[in-house]
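We emphasize that the prediction below concerns an isolated chain of 68 residues; any contacts that depend on oligomerization or on bound cofactors are therefore not represented. The input was used exactly as deposited, without trimming of termini.
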Amino acid sequence: MSVVKVVELLGESTTSWEHAIQEAVSAASKTIRNITGVEVLNMTASIENGEIAKYKANVNVAFSVDDT
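Result of the prediction step, given as a token string:
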């Protein structure tokens, strides 16, 4: 039987929401092993001078818990 843990993260990018999601997953993968999935919860943006300055994505990252 496997156990999965889920953590909520906020990714940011000046490029796109997709890139913000990838940034969150990439950062998590530096310290979390066995990532099995990502769920996008919410997408928002910061506006400066009438234009999007930062794309933000709240995500849940799921990973298997080692039983060792």
